[in-house]
Design goal:
Largest sheet: 2 strands, antiparallel
Protein name: Thioredoxin domain-containing protein
InterPro entries: Thioredoxin-like_sf
Distance between the termini: 24 Å
Radius of gyration: 13 Å
Helix content: 40-55%
Shape: globular
Length: 73
Amino acid sequence: METLAKEEFPKLVTAYIDCQEAASPLCAAQGIFSLPVVQLWFEGQRFAEFARVFSVGDVRSALERPYGLMTQK
């Protein structure tokens, strides 16, 4: 995911949260109870979530349109 963000979506701000360690209350508050999970947020709104079985291509496809709109501003 880091490589995807850096190479194809360089203006995207990314964060990694380890839900198995100290951040588990935060993860539970977000409804994350199984791993792995990728959440995509734009302008403070979650618009996509991928859990358990997904591909980098799935995430790329979900990011393309909103990222394109964001970078046109």
